[in-house]
Design brief:
175 residues; mainly alpha; Hypothetical protein af1432; 67% helix; globular; binds fe (iii) ion
Length: 175
């Protein structure tokens, strides 16, 4: 991967450890999931599809048309198949770091959030997101879900069901 992606991965790992300590998750797992979360992001589409197939995963219609979603799926398969990591929570944290999903584990929430709050991130709202992440992971996730859903709908892009399930879950659990 390129320098930017490598720095981002290190920063997400570092941020994930901070959040793990704050919310009582396993800091080592948080570091591992954080550093590996974008492991396949810069490999070719063909290779990603191959890894996904090797992992026995069939992409749904929305995923097929959204290559940006592939790296989470291929990353988790890569880490399982090529690196031999068997911890389901780490694998799921990687797999769902882009869309989120309903009923996320604490580690999944940490990686999803850390991806938006790593220290090189400078999008408008990054500081708000950081501040929220120190108060409540769910509050931070709601903020990023709102942003993502608004952006996708304004672009008339498809919304993956897991993204909606993630949002609904946050609403229904009273974030
Ligand atoms: Fe990613
Ligand atoms: Fe990332």
């Amino acid at each position: 991967m390129g320098d930017y992606r490598f720095t981002h991965s290190c920063n997400v790992a570092e941020e994930a450890v901070i959040l793990a300590r704050l919310y009582g998750a396993d800091a080592e797992k948080a570091y591992v999931a954080g550093i590996l979360h974008d492991i396949t992001k810069e490999i070719s589409k063909e290779e990603q599809l191959q890894i996904i197939a090797d992992g026995g995963i069939i992409l749904d219609n929305v995923q097929k048309n959204a290559p940006k979603l592939w790296h989470a799926v291929s990353g988790s398969a890569y880490v399982r198949l090529r690196l031999g990591i068997k911890d389901e929570d780490i694998l799921n944290a990687i797999r769902y770091h882009t869309t989120g999903r309903a009923n996320m584990s604490l580690l999944e929430k940490i990686i999803y959030t850390a991806d938006y709050t790593s220290k090189e991130r400078s999008y408008p709202g990054a500081d708000v997101m950081r501040e929220k992440s120190r108060r409540s992971l769910e509050e931070a996730m709601m903020f990023s879900c709102q942003f993502t859903l608004q952006k996708l709908s304004s672009q008339e892009a498809a919304i993956h069901p897991d993204q909606l399930f993630c949002y609904n879950d946050l609403v229904l659990k009273g974030t």
